[in-house]
Every structure is written in C-alpha cells, then in structure tokens.
Give the backbone structure.
Amino acid sequence: MSFDTPWILFLLPLAALPLLLERHHSRAYSWLQLLPSDPLSDLVGLLLKILAALALLFILLGMAGPHSAQQQVEKIGEGAQIALVIDRSASMDDPFSGTTNGRVGETKSAAASRLITQFINQRKNDMFGMVTFSNSAMYVMPLTQNREAILAAVQAAAGTALFQTNIGSGLTSGIALFDKVPDSGSRAIILLSDGAGRVSDDVQQKVRDWLDHMHITLYWIVLRQPGGLSIFDTNYKPPENAALPPEIELYEYFKTLKSPFHAYEAEDPKSLAMAIEDINSKEKKPIRYVEQIPGRDFSQHCFFLAAFMIALLLGVKYLEVRSWH
Amino acid sequence: MQQNPAQEFSYHIGWRSKGRHPGRHSSIQTGLGMEFRGHAPLIAYPDPRRIDLRQTLRDPTEQIHVRMFNQKSSIPVYVVCDLSGSMGFVGERSKLELAADICASAAYSAYRVNDPFGFIGFDDDIREDWLFTSTTKVHGAFELAERLRGYRPASRGARGLLDADQFLSRERALVFLISDFHMPAEALEKALSSLMRHHVVPVVLWDGAEYKKLPEFGITSVTDAETGARRTLFLRRGYRERIAEAFEARRTQLRNLFMRYDMPPFFVEERFKADDMTEYFYQFVAA
C-alpha cells in the first residue's frame, strides 16, 4: 500500500478531533446524574463520535490517494508470435518436381501457402504477422490474432509471383513487425524462400542485432530444387575465383546469429510439411511471462466510505431533537 | 417597577417567636397582646392598667395582681436561594424567574405582617453580592427579585448551602429554601441538619421539561449545567418513562429526607401560586 500524496497522512490526527472536541450544539440540562444511565444512549453517543472520526479519517485517506503497489504475476501460456516472411520471387511459381503424394505440378508457393494454412490452423493461440518480399519487402499484415485476416493473407501469397529475392529487406520488415508489440516470450520468424540473395554487411549487422535484441527465433525453410545445391553440404567447394553461392553464404551468416536459428531444407511438399511440423513442435514450449498488474486506486473507496458515514451522520441529524425548550 | 405585583400569602408558624418587635406571630414576649399568660404581682410587673381585680380580691395575702399577656412578635423571614448552574435551566420558564416570583412574594408577605425579610444567595459559596440584609423595607427586596430574574448562573455547584446558617439570624427564623435540590442526598442532609434551628420550608423548583415534557423521540446532546459533563441521549418511549420514574423516585427520596428533618417540602412546577403557599402553612396549623 502506498500513497500519492503521503504528506496528507500527517493530517490524520485531525480525525481524532470529533473524539476530543465536544459537540457544539448541546442543551443545558440541570442535573445529568438524575438521568438514569442508558447504555443505548451511550452507545449512540460513542457511535456518533466514531462515525465523525471515521468520516474524517476516510476523507484524509482518500485525499492521500492510497493505491496498492503494482504486482507482477507470472503466467504460463502457449501463444507464440510468429512472423511469416515468405518469398514471392518468380522462382516460387515453379512446381516442386518429383513429388510423391500425387500433387504433381503444385507450385512451391501454393504448397507453402497450403501447408502454412494448416500450420496456422493448428496454432490457435498464436499471433501471426506476414511480410512477403521479392525485390523489396511488402508489408502484408501486422501481428494479429485475427485468423481470418491472416489466412486470407496466406492465400493471397499463393498468387502469381514477382521478380527476385531480397531476403535482407524481407527479414528487416519481418523483424519490424515485432516492434512495439509486447513480447509474449515466444517469438519466431519463419522465413520461407527458395534460394537466397545476398545480404549486405550493414543489413546483416542490423538483422543480427535486432533478432538478438527482440529475442526472435529464426526458422529458415529453403525450398530446394531436387538435386540442387544443399545448404547443408559442407563439402561444397565453389569454382575457383567465384564467391560462395548465396544460399551457403546466407546459411553461414545465419549460423553466426546470436539468437536461435534453425534451417530446414524442403524439396517437396512432404519435406516442407515435415519442416513446418518441426517448427510447430519447437514453438510449442510453454511461455513463461511476467504480467504487470497495475496497483488499484483506493481513494474512491475511501471517499465512498466517508460519504456513507456522512450520510449516516446526516440521518442522525434528522433524528435530532428540535422541539425541546 | 414590578410588572406583576407580588402575590401575597399568609404564613403561620407553630412555634413561638422570641422577637421583641411587634408582629403577627405568637411569641414568648410579655407585652400588649391578647394571649393570657398568667398573673404577677404589681410590684413585679408594674402595669396598673392590667390589674386583675378578681384575682386581687381572692388573694388572702392581699397582693395586687396584674394580668400578663404575650405580645404578638415578628419573626425574621429569609429566602435562601440556590444560584447554582442547574437553576439556570430554562424549561417552561426559567427557574430563577420562578425563584424571583417566590422571593418577591415572600418579601411582600413578610412586609405585610411587619416581619423583616432577608435574602441569601449561594452557589458553591455564599454569594456576597447576593446577600440582602434583613429589613422590613420591601423595596430593596423587590429590586433584588428583579435582579434575580435576569441572572444567568455560572456553572457552579451548590455547596454554599452548608454555610448558609452562618448568615441567618440567631433567633429562629422562617427560611424559604428555594432550590431544585439537584444535589447529592448526603450534602443536602448535612446542610439540612445545619439549618435545623430554623423553620425551613424547602421550595423545590422542578420544571416539566426536565422529565415530563421530554421530546417524544430523537437524539440530543445534553450538558450538565454545573459540571459541564456531556451525554448523548437517545430519547424514546422506554427511556422517557425511565427518566420520569427516576424523577418520581427522586421526589419520594426528597420528601422522605425533608420529612426526617420535619421540613415538609413545597413543590413548585412552572407557576408559583401564593394561595398554595398559604394552604401549605394552614395544613400544619391545628384547627
């Protein structure tokens, strides 16, 4: 319990005034000893004084503005905040080749969209945001719990693709979604892309800092052409005088992140589903977060009590004898 | 001067005055009176007007006998008035106004029968400024009664009553002791025993507003006029009845106490009627 204006508490002794001072309007009576003692009268007299004192006390307390201290309550929840950063480059319109589940010709983006929709439907408590990118990032949806909106956004992402891959811009925009959103304790970015682009040094630094600062886990799902270059291939040696392929370079960069990072490779809808399933299970960890409950203001209660006491006193005033000598 | 002229009452006393001043009361003083007292030789009581011829002739020793009579004498009359705080109670009427009425009435009545009248006021002490020396002049007494009418007593007790006998006459006097007798019984008893020498008429001033005409229902705060103590009263039917009972018990107590000292009390409530006082004196005179 603390007070807004504690110095008013120094005035609290004033509340004892009704106990110390006698009532001003009193009738002279010849000899009180002759009046038989009456416990009820004495009780009423005492109550009146106490009521008056309490009324003053509560007014003073109310003026001091009591409120309980803010409390921190630890809560355990499941809801994660997940930003979907989805590649919309032209290559995403290519179908997976060599699929096994009869969906021959399903484009990467359609498969991603279908599986992500499933993923979203499995996670009832999460907040989703979405950013797509190609040449530059496209802000689609802030972090929201509105499932209809996010599902519609995912559906839309399956449409015709655009141009090229600018992962750096997509990542920064995806990270920016978390800005000014209270941390739920479980934050993740699912970066879904085929191939990769180069990310400049300062963007790399920025992404690294931000991911670390905002406690965001990065999941990177690479949609790979079957038989194409694997980012997990450590033995790959680039041709002489050539730079590393951007995927491997990006993977190497992501491995230097201070925040958690997981990479998946998917070459068909099945492996994509497995990747997403893995993410789903990884992000299931219960989140432990501390909720701040603001202190409650009790001055209104004090004033209400004081008003109640004064009302009682007024009632007694109404009962007061007026017609006596 | 007086707005309503003082009412006269007549008072009779059952004892003999020792006073030499002629008055209306039977006396032990020999003198010009109608009450035969006995015979005396002319030598001893040289009043040839009263020679009793028959007694003289019947006396073989041939002494001349004179009839002796008791004269009627005056008695001193005092009003000893309580000026304590409780007498400031104003109910139907101010108690002190009532006391002033009685005082004026007693003074006038005494004046009519040529008795000297004196006044002694007391609260916790005898009040020097409220002493009125015994005199047969009535005017001063009326002025004093007027003064009394406007007096507002301080919050003081009534212990001065114990000293009142020192300010009364040496001879037996008729003392109207005006008070509400709101004082402890022990103190009153002590005071009464100090006044035994005199013929005391306790005039008990009570007011209906003190106990009978209380408000029906309500809460009020009352202050003791003498001690200043405060109490909150929650008046209701049961409590009002208990207050009235307490006053009735007090009345009985006072009556028993006064009767023990052979001083029948005279209760006055709200109005003083001189005829009632006359009646009061008549009831003790053998017909």
User: Anything to note?
Assistant: Chain B touches chain A through 42 residues (CB under 8 Å). The CA atoms of residues 100 and 148 of chain B lie 6 Å apart.
